Amino acid sequence: MPLTGDDQHYGIDMKKGIDAALENQSVQGRKIEFKVMDDSSDSVTTIQMANQIIDEGIFLMLGNVGALSTLQLMPVLKATQIPSVGFYTLGDVSNNDTLSYRPSTSEEVATLISDMTGTGINPAQICVFAQDDVFGVAAIKGFKTGLSKFPNMQATIDKLEHILDMTMGGINPALNGLGPIGFYPHDTVFIRNAYLSLKDWERQSGQPCGFIVLVATPKVAADFIAYSHYKNESWSFGAISATAAGYALSKRLSAYYLEDKVVVTQVVPSLDASLPIVKDAKNILGKDLNHVNLEGYITGRLFLAILRSMKEPITRDNFIKMAHLQPFDLGGLKIEFNQGNSGSKLVSLNLLHKNAYQVFVPNDFVVALKP
After folding, report:
1. Which of 119, 127, 287, 290 lies at a CB distance of 3.0 to 4.6 Å from 365, suitable for a disulfide?
2. How far apart are CA 168 and CA 165, in angstroms?
């Protein structure tokens, strides 16, 4: 997990949540050791550290954070038959031994687009700002899905298909200027070409980018919003959960003295929900509770629930088999691996403003975005 660097908020909060769930817990008389190593979101370091702890005899990897690093880590885990559980992945990555709590990035993007068109936003005026890696590939797939119910959007969908073909499942630096997406290079803050790509699309299509979906890290997303202000754009913005990252995006915006209202998808229950699992997390984490460490707490509880459901010896194979055999009720939160490797389908919309989340009310959307 990144515990230092620009992405440290992900790792610090995921670790905090998982630690809270696993502290002083045991299964079948065996203690649980959760060992976290800082990779600073560097994929080379990720692989080096993964090989090191695999050699130490780990049972599985839990709660890893990353986009490109996760993509490169998966073959290592597959080769050594190490399960991956509850990864905070910034993209759609999976294998047979992967158990994910969160819905995929593409599902979040598709839900955001579908719900926003329900507010009256013209689908032809939706654009995407995304990272040029598996994170961005997932954004394209979700964008396609979100637009697919509109027959007059087929020409745009064809352009998205073309961009997907050019990615070949990975990274291609020449994707800008091809459609309603602006890409910035992975692990950089170079956003100008992405901005120019969206402006090119506005000229080509004859439609303004009225609503832009941000599929980026919090820092880069905030930089892009600030740059759009500098350019006097009237764009409004949405973000997926990993881009908002709890309060990280909002804090970045505050540092620019910006008060934009951003529509955000969330994959965890509301922090003030009455669910027992949320109350448990709040009792332990207190005022530090946010959406990322709540997801870490849920991930830790899921790991425990699967372990404690096992009557057979605790082996990796039995762990994966048991996870698929039955649904799990984690304090009122249902997790089930009967359709793919995502245990939860929960995607809800909030409105983020001034470091606070509000319930998203579609009918109030246009009014809410006015200064």
Report:
1. 119
2. 6
For residue 117, being part of any structural domain is answered with yes
Residue whose entry in the numeric block shows the structure tokens 């090989």: 51
Helix, strand or coil for residue 35? coil
SS3 letters across 181-248: EEEEECCCCCCHHHHHHHHHHHHHHCCCCCEEEEECCHHHHHHHHHHHHHCCCCCEEEECHHHHCCCH
Single out the residue of 63, 103, 16, 105 nearest to residue 290, CA to CA: 16
pLDDT digits (tens, 9 = 90+) for 14-41: 999 999 999 999 998 899 999 999 999 8
Same structural domain, 99 and 110: no
In the β-sheet with 126-132, what is the strand arrangement from edge to edge?
Answer: 181-185, 126-132, 211-215, 236-239, 262-266, 348-353, 356-359
> Do 135 and 105 form a contact (C-beta atoms < 8 A)?
yes
End-to-end CA distance of the chain: 38
Sign of CA dihedral 110, 156, 222, 210: negative
Q: Domain span at residue 198?
A: 105-266+348-368
d(CA 213, CA 238): 5
What is the C-alpha to C-alpha distance for residues 328 and 310, in angstroms, rounded to an integer?
Answer: 13
Instruction: Give tens-digit pLDDT for 314-368.
Output: 999 999 999 999 999 999 999 999 877 889 999 999 999 888 998 887 766 654 4
Distance CA 293, CA 5 (A): 18
120 shares its domain with 226: yes
